[in-house]
C-alpha cells in the first residue's frame, strides 16, 4: 500500500512538472525586506504598475544577492508565507518537505533531531543562523529540536556541496535560517495557543523603523507534558533580535542575536533495556551574536565585515533507576568565534567578483562521569583549534543572461589536519523554450574531524585527516509561467572518501580512523501548481529517489520519499474583510535501515510510514482601533494517528493538536 502511495506521489510530481509546467507558483505573501549577505529579500509584492511578482532573492548560493531563477545550483526557499500557512513552530517541521531532506527525531517533541541532506551524514550538512555556524563542535551535526520559527523571515536550503564558500561540513549542502528585517511603521503581534498533552505556547513580536534604525524583536515560550505519563515533558524559551542602522547612504551596521534554552525528559533513554527511563533529562542552551558592517566603498565595489560568536551548553543527567544501575552526568560546552572580510565587485551586467578571508576558532570542553557498582568512567578534555580560509568566486552573465556561470575555489588552513582545497563550478543555460533552464555543476567538499573524533578518551585520534567529497549534478528548472506553476528536476552523483569511522582495536576498544567510502546517487522532483483562482488552490509535490551505489545501505535514509501539499486560500464571500487559509500536508517515507536498540543495536529495517498534517486559519481584518488583524488558527499533526518511528525504537508522537489566537496590530 505504501509503495503504491509513493508511486502515486512520483506520478503527481511528474505530471505537475511536465504536463502543467506552463502555468506558476502563487506569489509569496511576505513584503519586500532589506537585503544583505545574510538577510536578503523574499517578496511577493508586485512590480509597480504590473501584476508580476518581484523576484525571490537568495544569498546563500553565492554570498551575494541573486535571483532564485538565476541561480546555477539547486536552492529551495521557505518563505514567511509558508511558515504561517503551516503554523510551524519549529524550523524542522518545514524542512521535512524539502526534496531529499530526511529528518529523524528521537521520539517526542524536544528530543534530539538530526537531518540528512542529499544522503549525506548529519554532520556533513552545514547549518547557519544569519550566516553564523551553529553545528556542534563535538558531534558535528546540529540538533534541530529547539530551533523555532520565531522572528524567522525565511529558510534557504542549498542542496549540494557548498564548500567553496563555506568550508567544512557543507558536503551535503547548507541550511541558512534568516531573521526578519524590520521596516515600516512600528507593528507587533501577540499569539497564544494550547493543545493536548498539556501543551501551551505563547509568543510576542515587534518590528518597524525609527529614523535610521530598523528593528525586529521576538520572544516565545513553549511548555508541554508530552504523550507519556512520566518524563516526557519539554520546555523551550526563545528570544531573537535584529537591528539594521543606516549610518550613511551606502553604509549599514547590523546586529543579530538569538537565544534558546530548552529542557526535556528522555523517557526513551533506557530503550536498549526495553524499559522507560523515569529520570533521564537533558537541558540545552544556545546563543549567538553577530555584528556586521556593509558599505559601498566606491561605485560597484562593496565591502562586508562581520564578526560572530556562537556558544552552546548541554547538560545530561541520568540517575540510577529500576532498569539501569549507572549514574551518568555530563556537561558539554562549545564555542565558535568567526571573523570575516568580503569584497564584491560588480562589473556592470557582465560579472560579479567575490573574494573573502575568514578566521575561525573553535573550542570544546567535556566533562562526563559514569558511576556504576561494577565500574567508573571519568572522561574529560578541553581543546581548541583555529582555521584560516580564503575564497574567490566569479559569476558570469553571458549572451544577454541566457548563459550563467559561477566558478570559485576556497583554501582552508586548519591547525589540526592541514590544508583543504574546495573548487566548484556550475552553469545554467536558457533553452529556446521560455522559462526553461538547464543546470550542471561540479563541486568538491570536505569535513574536518570533530573534537570527539580527535580527542575523546579511548576513541579519538589526533592524526585524523578530513573527509573529502566530489559531486556532479545536472537539472532542469521551468519557471515560464510564474503566476501559475514552477517545476524542478535534479540529479546528483557524489563520492565521499576517507569517512571517519570507529575501528576495533586489539584491546577491545574502538578508535576513529579515515577508512570509509560512500557513493550515492539521487533524483529530486519538485513541482508546484496554482490550479484554481478565487479561492487560490495550490498543489505542491516532491519526490526523491536515493540509493547507495556501494554497500551497505545508508542508515536512516530511505530509497524513496515524497509528499503532496494542498493549500487553499481565499476570502469569505459573506464577510468581505476576512480571509481563510487551509493547508493539508501528506508525507510518505519508505523503508530504511536503522540500528535496533532493543536488539543489541543490530541492523534492522524500520518500516515505511505515511503522515498527514492539517492546518487552518481564519483572519478578521481591521479588528483594532488603529487597524490590525485577529486570526483564529488550529493545526492537527499526525491526523490519521499513524504509529511509526523516525528513529527505530523511539515512538513518534500520536495525533496531537493546537489551537489559538493571534492578534496583529
Report a brief summary of the structure.
The protein is mostly beta strands and 665 residues long.
What does this entry look like structurally?
- With 665 residues, the chain is mainly beta.
- The protein has a single domain (2-664), classed as Maltoporin, Chain A, CATH 2.40.170.20.
- The protein has five helices and 36 strands.
- It has a 23-stranded antiparallel beta sheet that branches. A five-stranded mixed beta sheet has the order 3-8-9-6-7. Strands 1-2 form a two-stranded antiparallel ribbon.
- The longest helix is centred in the first third of the chain and has 18 residues, at 2-19.
- The chain is globular, with a radius of gyration of 24 Å.
- Mean pLDDT is 91; it is low at 1-52.
Output the structural class: mainly beta
Strand content: over 45%
User: Number of domains in the coordinates?
Assistant: 1
Uncertain regions spanning at least 5 consecutive residues: 1-52
Number of helices: 5
The name CATH uses for the topology is Maltoporin, Chain A
How are the SSEs ordered, and which strands pair?
Blueprint: H1 2-19, E1 57-58, E2 66-67, E3 74-79, H2 80-86, H3 91-95, E4 101-105, E5 113-117, E6 125-129, E7 132-133, E8 152-159, H4 163-166, E9 173-179, E10 187-195, E11 199-210, E12 213-224, E13 234-248, E14 251-265, E15 281-298, E16 301-318, E17 327-347, E18 351-372, E19 375-398, E20 403-414, E21 418-430, E22 436-447, H5 451-455, E23 467-478, E24 485-504, E25 510-525, E26 528-532, E27 536-548, E28 560-571, E29 578-589, E30 592-596, E31 602-606, E32 609-620, E33 629-637, E34 645-647, E35 650-651, E36 656-664
Parallel strand pairs: 6-9
Antiparallel strand pairs: 1-2, 3-8, 4-5, 6-7, 8-9, 10-11, 10-36, 11-12, 12-13, 13-14, 14-15, 15-16, 16-17, 17-18, 18-19, 19-20, 20-21, 21-22, 22-23, 23-24, 24-25, 24-26, 25-27, 26-27, 27-28, 28-29, 29-32, 30-31, 32-33, 33-36, 34-35
Amino acid at each position: 500500500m505504501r509503495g503504491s502511495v509513493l508511486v502515486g506521489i512520483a506520478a503527481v510530481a511528474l505530471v505537475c512538472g511536465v504536463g502543467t509546467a506552463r502555468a506558476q507558483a502563487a506569489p509569496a505573501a511576505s513584503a519586500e525586506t532589506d537585503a544583505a549577505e545574510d538577510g536578503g529579500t523574499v517578496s511577493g509584492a508586485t512590480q509597480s504598475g504590473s501584476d508580476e511578482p518581484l523576484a525571490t532573492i537568495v544569498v546563500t548560493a553565492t554570498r551575494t544577492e541573486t535571483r532564485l531563477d538565476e541561480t546555477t545550483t539547486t536552492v529551495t526557499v521557505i518563505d514567511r508565507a509558508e511558515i504561517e500557512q503551516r503554523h510551524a513552530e519549529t524550523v524542522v517541521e518545514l524542512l521535512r518537505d524539502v526534496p531529499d531532506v530526511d529528518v529523524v527525531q528521537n521520539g517526542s517533541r524536544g528530543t534530539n533531531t538530526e537531518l540528512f541532506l542529499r544522503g549525506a551524514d548529519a554532520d556533513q550538512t552545514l547549518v547557519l543562523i544569519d550566516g553564523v555556524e551553529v553545528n556542534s563542535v563535538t558531534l558535528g551535526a546540529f540538533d534541530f529540536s529547539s530551533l523555532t520559527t520565531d522572528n524567522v523571515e525565511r529558510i534557504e536550503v542549498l542542496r549540494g556541496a557548498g564548500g567553496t564558500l563555506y568550508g567544512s561540513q557543507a558536503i551535503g549542502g547548507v541550511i541558512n535560517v534568516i531573521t526578519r528585517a524590520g521596516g515600516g511603521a512600528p507593528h507587533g503581534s501577540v499569539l497564544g495557543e494550547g493543545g493536548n498533552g498539556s501543551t501551551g505556547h505563547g509568543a510576542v513580536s515587534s518590528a518597524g523603523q525609527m529614523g535610521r534604525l530598523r528593528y525586529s524583536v521576538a520572544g516565545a515560550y513553549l511548555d508541554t507534558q508530552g504523550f507519556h505519563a512520566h518524563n516526557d515533558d519539554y520546555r523551550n524559551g526563545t528570544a531573537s533580535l535584529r537591528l539594521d542602522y543606516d549610518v550613511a547612504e551606502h553604509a549599514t551596521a547590523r546586529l543579530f542575536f538569538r537565544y534558546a534554552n530548552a529542557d526535556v525528559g528522555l523517557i526513551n533513554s533506557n530503550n536498549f533495556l526495553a524499559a522507560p527511563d523515569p529520570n533521564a533529562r537533558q537541558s540545552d542552551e544556545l546563543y549567538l551574536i553577530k555584528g556586521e558592517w556593509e558599505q559601498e566603498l566606491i561605485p560597484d565595489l562593496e565591502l562586508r565585515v562581520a564578526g560572530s560568536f556562537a556558544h552552546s551548553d548541554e547538560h545530561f543527567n541520568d540517575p540510577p533507576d529500576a532498569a539501569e544501575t549507572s549514574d551518568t552526568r555530563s556537561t558539554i560546552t562549545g564555542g565558535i568565534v568567526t571573523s570575516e572580510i568580503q569584497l564584491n565587485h560588480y562589473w556592470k551586467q557582465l560579472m560579479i567578483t567575490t573574494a573573502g578571508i575568514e578566521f575561525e576558532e573553535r573550542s570544546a570542553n567535556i566533562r562526563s562521569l559514569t558511576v556504576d557498582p561494577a565500574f567508573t568512567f571519568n572522561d574529560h578534555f578541553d581543546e581548541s583549534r583555529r582555521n584560516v580560509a580564503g575564497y574567490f568566486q566569479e559569476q558570469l552573465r553571458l549572451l544577454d543572461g541566457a548563459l550563467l556561470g559561477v566558478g570559485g575555489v576556497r583554501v582552508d588552513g586548519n591547525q589540526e589536519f592541514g590544508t583543504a582545497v574546495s573548487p566548484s563550478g556550475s552553469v545554467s543555460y536558457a533553452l529556446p523554450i521560455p522559462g526553461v533552464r538547464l543546470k550542471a555543476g561540479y563541486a568538491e567538499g570536505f569535513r574536518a574531524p570533530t573534537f570527539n573524533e580527535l580527542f575523546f578518551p579511548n576513541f579519538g585520534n589526533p592524526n585524523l585527516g578530513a573527509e573529502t567529497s566530489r559531486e556532479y549534478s545536472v537539472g532542469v528548472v521551468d519557471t515560464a509561467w510564474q503566476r501559475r506553476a514552477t517545476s524542478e528536476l535534479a540529479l546528483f552523483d557524489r563520492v565521499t572518501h576517507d569517512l571517519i569511522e570507529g575501528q576495533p582495536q586489539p584491546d577491545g576498544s574502538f578508535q576513529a580512523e579515515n577508512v570509509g567510502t560512500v557513493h550515492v546517487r539521487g533524483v529530486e522532483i519538485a513541482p508546484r501548481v496554482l490550479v484554481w483562482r478565487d479561492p487560490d488552490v495550490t498543489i505542491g509535490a516532491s519526490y526523491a529517489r536515493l540509493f547507495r551505489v556501494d554497500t551497505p545501505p545508508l542508515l536512516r535514509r530511505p530509497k524513496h520519499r515524497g509528499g503532496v501539499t494542498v493549500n487553499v486560500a481565499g476570502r469569505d464571500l459573506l464577510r468581505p474583510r476576512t480571509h481563510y487559509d487551509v493547508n493539508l500536508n501528506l508525507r510518505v517515507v519508505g523503508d530504511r535501515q536503522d540500528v535496533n536498540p532493543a536488539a543489541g543495536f543490530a541492523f534492522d529495517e524500520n518500516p515505511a510510514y505515511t503522515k498527514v498534517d492539517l492546518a487552518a486559519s481564519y483572519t478578521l481584518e481591521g479588528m483594532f482601533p488603529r487597524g490590525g488583524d485577529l486570526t483564529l488558527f488550529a493545526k492537527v499533526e499526525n491526523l490519521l494517528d499513524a504509529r511509526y518511528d523516525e528513529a527505530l525504537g523511539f515512538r513518534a508522537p500520536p495525533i496531537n493538536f493546537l489551537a489559538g489566537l493571534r492578534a496583529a496590530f
